[in-house]
């Protein structure tokens, strides 16, 4: 813990010492996760259900000429085969998506990527469904595809969608409605100062282009959804989703039903990382259920994950003007996001990551353009960071390149330019509750930056690198919560935040427990069920601790106020002289009532409920469309810094991490252990994306869609030393000073490693991942003995 | 006569005699789930490369997504549900709880069963031993440092 800045006085709580927050409470669900009893949707079977298997497009772009389901239907045990035309019988306009209504439930008239769902075979047995799906014959008339995001943005490129169909939910996308002849789904802009003047005043100008490929979430629990009719016009969807409230809204919109006719419930998720957001299988399974009037279950294989949602590939062009003393005076950024065939949340990735693409630096003159681009690859969406690691790869690689050219220490170059408390961000918002200096100081200390590094001998070369990054939390978003006291005085929290491993159940229990003066371990958190738990925008973007945490806090305060009022009447003591402490309402005099006694006083027996309600929507000002300027663009800033020490084998190109230090700022951590685990976990995931994870495409076909050919980090890939460090700058509006942390460990890892590679070998690689082959090729190129290409 | 693609198997499951009528193409993880309601072993990668579906067959860890159910006829099968004694967790499970050696928990049963096999063969493993032995189990949340701590703590409990 490097540094603590006190929150402003008005947010300081008079209350007693905290007992439940700022404490590393063990996971509430620990026992159920080690004895096999934890509930996942994957466990669920429904009586009489059919299993669905998806037949997928074999071409990247083509017109559907004919679908022949005869052989599939003839197979014993097959109940039905559903195609896009069947879907249209139920839903005339069956297109969905959070930003654009562009994705058909099953392909209609044409396919836009290899792997796109074209038909579904439904059978009593999953193996029969699979065999039937393989028997579905589809004839295509191929169309020219486009795969590269920069090519797709140019005039004359093949067009993925004839017309753009922005969803009504995002008012700022309305201007795109009906636009045709383009693959650009959105161009997000930021303008600040005078870019031209800034470059004129610069002593040196650096311009580079960086790239990264596509990777996947690879959550180990697959995509899985079941649906059943629970009445003539009522549908229940059980799904491994990070956004049950969104699923309800979108499925009811598609069906033309009201939201209260659709129930969406989930359980623990076996990982999500942004993959299980918005609509994945839910609309398809709902339609199948309504068409065949039987419960339907579809669980994808790991291979199918590669055809469902990916992280964005991106090309980032960065032009930076600096003074000879190292001050950055101008920065121009242009980003092309490879969004694949359907927008999913890609336009939001483009826009939101665009806002912070100039980095955590104080720069007078900034111009950013960030383009969401359609291509004929699988759709790209959110992956733990909403595009941040792609832009950080660019600007923090370039930070080192500039520092080296100016013969400055990379750490000092950053320190000189840092964006500090009270200064305007590129969007115009004044920075608050940030201490980037403290993060660099901590990195400097943990890396022993001043001590010369052992450079290695022979074929092993050593180097080190750092990086620091910023993200704006997505805004504006709503969370609603209820806190319910039962007749025996026990407490349940009702909220639609999904515990997908980040530990939100425990965090919410801590927050409710803190307000009510009861141990977090006794609080039960009810899992999302849209018939039961109130609305939440989604478990995404590291927003839950802050948004839902505030809602739970308000709900608990509401319940507490009711408890205190009843106790005040019973005890004849003024409310202001009472407090919730140790599971009871107590007065200074020592008199007290347990929660159960209060319930009995109110309801004459052990009965009834006291229900507290809370909701949270942070302050927000919509950014100007042309300049991106806003006084209130984000409820809080998310910061991440990383330092890496590596060994490079110059004969094989393999990078081994000897040290990876990750610094995050959770504000006042609700659960310090959980924070550290999230930071380390995110950093390890990003290490995989940096060193070896990459989807490989051949004519739009994913050729490594399995764990045999696409490796994710295992124990042998761990750095020798791997730590998550936290500084705590309390957030003025966060619950008990906390802010979100889940993504921040991802941000800075890649350029820290890339910069270490340069430090070790003098070779700069502009494109991720830094696979042994890519490193070896670059080393040999630098030695003037390039390897042959295949 | 019994059709050739179906078979009745008899085996010991978590210490109790068990019988199942299975298809010869069905895997152990399918049968444990469908016929016995045991969900601790889960199919994820479907290729025996992630360890989520691990079960112990005659004391040896197998990938339940590849291992045909027919092969367990006459064998002793242990799943994560069979480790606790009544309400008392197995020391390895207890150690995973105390060290919070999980996040989403999906891979956890596989890690626990693999750790059981490891500690039976090597009661005092070094960090390096642990990393090698558990390299076939993947945790996408990357809770690896806590898992290594939990395995070490469990080995000390058992010693």
What does this structure look like?
The complex is a heterodimer of chains A (790) and B (159). Chain A is an alpha+beta fold. Chain A folds into 3 domains: 41-145 and 217-305, Aldehyde oxidase/xanthine dehydrogenase, a/b hammerhead (Aldehyde Oxidoreductase, domain 3, Alpha-Beta Complex), CATH 3.90.1170; 313-475 and 623-782, Aldehyde Oxidoreductase, domain 4 (2-Layer Sandwich); 477-616, Aldehyde Oxidoreductase, domain 4 (2-Layer Sandwich). Chain A is built from 20 helices and 31 strands. Chain A has a 7-stranded mixed sheet with strand order 3-7-1-14-11-12-13. A 6-stranded mixed sheet of chain A has the order 9-17-16-15-10-31, with helices on both faces. A 4-stranded mixed sheet of chain A has the order 18-26-27-30, sandwiched between helices. In chain A, helix 14 runs parallel beside helix 15 (544-571) and helix 17 (672-691) packs across helix 19. The longest helix of chain A is centred in the C-terminal third of the chain and has 28 residues, at 544-571. The model of chain A is unreliable at 1-14 (pLDDT under 50). Chain B is an alpha+beta fold and 159 residues long. Chain B has a 5-stranded mixed sheet with strand order 2-1-5-3-4, sandwiched between helices. In chain B, strand 3 and strand 4 (60-63) form a beta hairpin. The longest helix of chain B is centred in the last third of the chain and has 15 residues, at 144-158. The interface between A and B is large, with 55 and 56 residues.
CATH topology of the largest domain in chain B, anyone?
Answer: Ubiquitin-like (UB roll)
Unreliable runs of chain B: none
Q: Can you list the strand order of the major beta sheet of chain B? A: 2-1-5-3-4
Mean pLDDT of chain B: 96
């Amino acid at each position: 813990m490097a540094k603590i800045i006190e929150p402003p006085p008005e947010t300081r709580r008079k209350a007693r010492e905290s007992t439940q927050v700022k404490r590393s409470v063990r996971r509430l669900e620990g026992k159920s996760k080690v004895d096999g009893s934890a509930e996942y949707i994957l466990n669920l079977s429904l009586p009489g259900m059919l299993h669905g298997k998806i037949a997928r497009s074999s071409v990247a772009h083509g017109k559907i000429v004919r679908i022949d389901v005869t052989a599939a239907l003839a197979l014993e045990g097959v109940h039905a085969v559903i195609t896009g035309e069947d879907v249209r019988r139920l839903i005339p306009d069956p297109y969905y998506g959070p930003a654009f209504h562009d994705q058909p439930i099953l392909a209609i008239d044409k396919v836009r990527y290899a792997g796109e769902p074209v038909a579904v075979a439904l059978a009593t047995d999953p193996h029969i469904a699979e065999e039937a799906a393989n028997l579905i014959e589809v004839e295509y008339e191929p169309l020219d595809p486009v795969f590269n995001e920069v090519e797709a943005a140019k005039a004359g490129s093949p067009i993925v969608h004839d017309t753009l169909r922005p969803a009504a939910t995002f008012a700022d996308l309305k201007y795109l409605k009906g636009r045709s002849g383009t693959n650009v789904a959105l161009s997000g802009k930021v303008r600040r100062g005078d870019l031209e003047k800034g470059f004129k005043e610069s002593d040196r100008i650096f311009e580079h282009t960086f790239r990264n490929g596509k990777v996947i979430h690879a959550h180990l629990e697959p995509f899985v959804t079941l649906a059943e009719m629970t009445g003539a016009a009522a549908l229940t969807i059980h799904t491994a989703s990070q956004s049950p409230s969104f699923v309800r809204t979108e499925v009811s919109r598609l069906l033309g039903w009201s939201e209260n006719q659709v129930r969406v419930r989930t359980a623990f998720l076996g990982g999500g990382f942004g993959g299980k957001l918005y609509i994945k299988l839910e609309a398809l399974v709902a339609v199948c259920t309504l068409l065949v009037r039987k419960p339907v279950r579809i669980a994808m294989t790991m291979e199918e994950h590669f055809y469902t949602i990916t992280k964005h590939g991106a090309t980032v062009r960065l032009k930076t003007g600096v003074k000879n003393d190292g001050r950055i005076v101008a920065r121009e950024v242009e980003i092309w996001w490879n969004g694949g065939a359907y927008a999913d949340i890609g336009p939001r990735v483009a826009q939101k990551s665009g806002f912070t693409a100039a980095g955590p630096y104080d720069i007078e003159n900034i111009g950013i353009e960030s383009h969401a681009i359609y291509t004929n690859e699988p759709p790209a969406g959110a992956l733990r960071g909403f595009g941040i690691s792609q832009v950080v790869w660019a600007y923090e690689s370039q930070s080192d390149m500039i520092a080296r050219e100016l013969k400055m220490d990379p750490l000092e170059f950053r320190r000189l330019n840092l964006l500090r408390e009270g200064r305007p961000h590129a969007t115009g918002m004044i920075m608050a509750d940030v201490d980037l200096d403290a993060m660099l100081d901590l990195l400097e200390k943990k890396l022993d930056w001043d001590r010369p590094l052992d450079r290695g001998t022979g074929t092993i070369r050593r180097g080190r690198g750092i990086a620091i990054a910023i993200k704006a939390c997505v805004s504006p978003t709503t969370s609603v919560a209820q806190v319910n006291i039962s007749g025996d005085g026990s407490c349940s929290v009702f909220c639609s935040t999904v515990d997908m491993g980040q530990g939100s159940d425990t965090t919410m229990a801590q927050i409710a427990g803190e307000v009510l003066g009861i141990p977090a371990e006794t609080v039960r958190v009810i899992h999302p069920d849209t018939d039961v738990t109130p609305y939440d925008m989604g478990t995404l973007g590291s927003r839950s601790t802050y948004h839902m945490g505030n809602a739970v806090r308000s709900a608990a305060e509401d319940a507490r106020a009711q408890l205190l009022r009843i106790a005040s009447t019973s005890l004849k003591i003024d409310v202001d002289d009472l407090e919730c402490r140790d599971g009871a309402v107590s007065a200074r005099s020592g008199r007290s009532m347990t929660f159960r006694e209060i319930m009995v006083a109110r309801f004459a027996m052990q009965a009834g409920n006291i229900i507290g309600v809370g909701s949270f929507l942070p302050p927000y000002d919509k950014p100007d469309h042309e300049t991106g300027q806003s006084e209130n663009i984000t409820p809080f800033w998310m910061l991440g810094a990383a330092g890496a020490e590596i060994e490079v084998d110059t004969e094989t190109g393999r990078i081994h991490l000897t040290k990876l230090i990750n610094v995050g700022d959770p504000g006042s951590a609700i659960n310090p252990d959980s924070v550290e685990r999230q930071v380390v976990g995110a950093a390890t995931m990003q290490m995989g994306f940096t060193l070896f994870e990459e989807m490989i495409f051949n004519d739009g076909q994913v050729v490594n869609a399995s764990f045999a050919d696409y490796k994710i980090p295992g124990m042998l890939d761990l750095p020798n030393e791997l730590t998550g460090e936290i500084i705590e700058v309390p957030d003025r509006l966060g619950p008990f000073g906390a802010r979100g942390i889940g993504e921040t460990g991802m941000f800075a890892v890649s350029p820290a490693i890339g910069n270490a590679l340069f430090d070790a070998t003098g070779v700069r690689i502009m494109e991720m991942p830094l696979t042994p082959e890519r490193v070896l090729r670059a080393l040999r190129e630098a030695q003037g003995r390039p390897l042959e290409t295949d | 006569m019994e059709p050739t693609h179906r078979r009745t198997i008899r085996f010991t499951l978590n210490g109790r005699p068990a019988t199942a009528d299975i298809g010869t193409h069905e895997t152990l993880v399918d049968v444990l789930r469908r016929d016995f309601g045991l969900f601790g072993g889960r199919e994820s990668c479907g290729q025996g490369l992630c360890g989520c579906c691990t079960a112990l067959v005659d004391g040896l860890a197998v990938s339940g997504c590849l291992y045909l159910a027919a092969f367990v006829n006459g064998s002793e099968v242990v799943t994560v549900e069979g480790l606790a004694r009544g309400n008392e967790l197995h020391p390895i499970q207890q150690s995973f709880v105390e060290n919070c050696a999980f996040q989403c928990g999906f891979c956890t049963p596989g890690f626990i069963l693999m750790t059981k096999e490891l500690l039976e063969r090597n009661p005092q493993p070094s960090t390096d031993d642990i990393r090698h032995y558990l390299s076939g189990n993947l945790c996408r949340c990357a809770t690896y440092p806590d898992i290594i701590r939990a395995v070490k703590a469990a080995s000390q409990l058992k010693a």
